Amino acid sequence: MSLRREHRLVFLLNVAQRRLQRWMAARAQASGVTAAQSGLLFILGQRDGVLMGEAGAALDLGPPGISGLVDRMTAASLIKRRADPDDGRAWRLWLTPAGRAAMAQSKAGLTEVNARLTDGFTDAEIDVVARWLTTMQTKFPRGEDE
Asked: Can you give the pTM of this predicted structure?
């Protein structure tokens, strides 16, 4: 019987997340677009006019979180919010020209961060890390503790 090495995964995951967030926040100050805002820009770049609730679900944000994000991005003229023509209670989100420009800038920044994240690892190793992180979404589903 082999003993598994103790990796302190929760600690390592938390430290990595905090450091990555700080690094990305420092770069966001220069570009004016946060990581969360970039995420919404990327979603709209793939599917402009998405429902606000669908965007929130894709970003793992609840109604208050997506509402605040949309408010900030609307105020910054990165997106527009329009009532859904079929359901007056729902809102659809659309990129503005400034949002499209910010999305292009965010994509360039994403290339840099992905290069730093994967530097020194093989594609097979990154595949394992990505699979492990993806399983977190099923092992710890949103709403389980809410």
From this structure: 0.79
The dihedral region occupied by 68, where left means phi > 0, alpha psi between -120 and 50, and beta the remainder, is: alpha
DSSP string, 105-143: HHHHHHHHHHHHHHTT--HHHHHHHHHHHHHHHHHS-TT
Contact assessment for residue 80 and residue 94, using Cβ atoms and an 8 Å cutoff: yes
Phi first, then psi: give them for residue 83, nearest 5 degrees.
-65, 140
Interval 28-48: pLDDT, tens:
767 778 889 999 999 999 999
Question: In whole angstroms, what is the distance from residue 20 CA to residue 41 CA?
Answer: 20
Decide if 94 contacts 44 (C-beta within 8 A).
yes
Q: Alpha carbon 91 to chain centroid distance?
A: 20
Residue recorded with tokens 């965010």: 106
Q: In whole angstroms, how far apart are CA 2 and each of 6, 9, 143?
A: 12, 19, 36
